[in-house]
Each structure stands twice: as C-alpha cells, then as structure tokens.
Write a structure and sequence with these properties.
single chain; 274 residues; 2 strands; 74% helix; globular
Amino acid sequence: MKQRVLSGVVLTLFAAAIVVFDQIFPLALNIAVALISLMAVDELARALELQRKWFLYMPSLAAAAALPFCAESQFVFLTYCLYTLIVFAAMIVYHHETTFKEVAVLYSMVVIIPCALHTLVSLRELNRSHGMFYVLIAVLAAWVADMGAYFAGTLFGRHKLCPEISPKKTVEGAIGGTIADVAVMLLCGLWFSQVFYHGTVEVNYLALFLAGFFGSWISILGDLSFSLIKRSCHIKDFGQVIPGHGGILDRFDSVIFTAPFVYLLVSFLSLAGG
C-alpha cells in the first residue's frame, strides 16, 4: 500500500507541475500526453505479443506520439489517414506474418487511446485562461474515484461489484469512490475560486458535481474494460513502470474514459468563468 500511495502522490505532483508551469512551457502537456500515449500503446502491443511485428508496432507508436501535437482537427484526421494507409498496406505485404484480427485489435486501440488522451490537450484549448483547471479536473475525476474506491473497499467492502473481471472491486468501494470524487471536485472548485483567484473567478459547482458523480462511474467502466483486456491477454498488469500500480495503462485506463466525458461536459457547462 505504501508504494501505491507514494506513486499516487508523485503522479499527482507531476500533474500539478504541468498545470502550474503551463504558462511558461505550454508544450509540457503535449509532451506528457504524447509519452503516456506512446507508452500505453507499447504496453498494449506487448500484451498482444505484437512488438516483434515491426510493420504494425512502429507505425502504431508513431501515430500515438504524433497525435497530441496535432492542434487542428484536420491534422488529427490526416494522422489517422496516414496510419490507416500504412497499417493496412503492411497487412497486405506481410499477410503471411499477421492476421486481420491482430491488425483490427491494435488499430482500434491506437485510435481509442491516443484520441481519448488527446482530449486533455483539447480541454486546455477550450479556455486558455482556465483550461489547465479543466485538465486537472479530468485527471482527478479518474484518480480520486480510483483511490476512494480502493480505500473504501478495503475498509468496508463486502459485496463484489464484478467478481469475474475484477475480484477486488466492491459495491461499497464504488460508492465510496463516488462520494470522494464529488467531494474533491467541489473542494477543487472552492480552492480554485476562493484561494487561487481570491474570489474573482466563479466556478460552476453543478458541473463539478456532475464531473465527480458521473466521472467516478465512467472511471470504473474504464478500469473494468482494461481489466477484461488484461484477462484476455492472461496478464496481471500491463507493466511495472509505476510501483504499486503497474504500467501506464494500469494508471491511465480510467483517464482514457473520463477525459472525453469531461471534455463533452465542459463544452456545454463551463467549469469556470471570468
């Protein structure tokens, strides 16, 4: 547990540093998302045992790393068009060495993972004044739900939530994670408005409540989805990059689901105003 908590604190501080220094070095977020996307796709390819098939593996890594630097939607479209052409051309050329099933699974994950994580960059661009607050909310909506569920489940867990996929998850943990998520979202809004901006900026507490409530359950969906992928690949963790947590995908699987949700939410309900 000590390793898990320590790693969680380090990751939170790292995310906070990116938020704080965004004005000085805005590319830090793009670089961080690119590295996370690249490492996530690498872990998935290794779980599928496709890392030796370089004609699929290398274009997938390149697409994952390039997407966070695509500022305009047409460049995102162009990136995926090129990736599609390269991967399917490779499938034709090396059809004796691969199968459509392998190509389809890897291709779909390279579309889903980097595209979902790219919404963190898009969140910042929604509001250049407070965009990094949006990014922080998107990440915390996933991580707080996970930590809250972990501690609540450890202390009060009795009823299994989905034992065939994730035996340790409990209904009590999910409820505790939701309560913790909502509380932290509202406290973040209070801190942002009253402490950071000394009351000069208003926040939308309804939007923060929705981010915490629905974000926690969407986070569970993401966690269970990637747990199912791990079971199908017969592995416990996607890697050992983060002590106590596993690989990058083990830590960011829920963010992959919550980030697009928060992006859609704040597109209609702004989290902060002038």
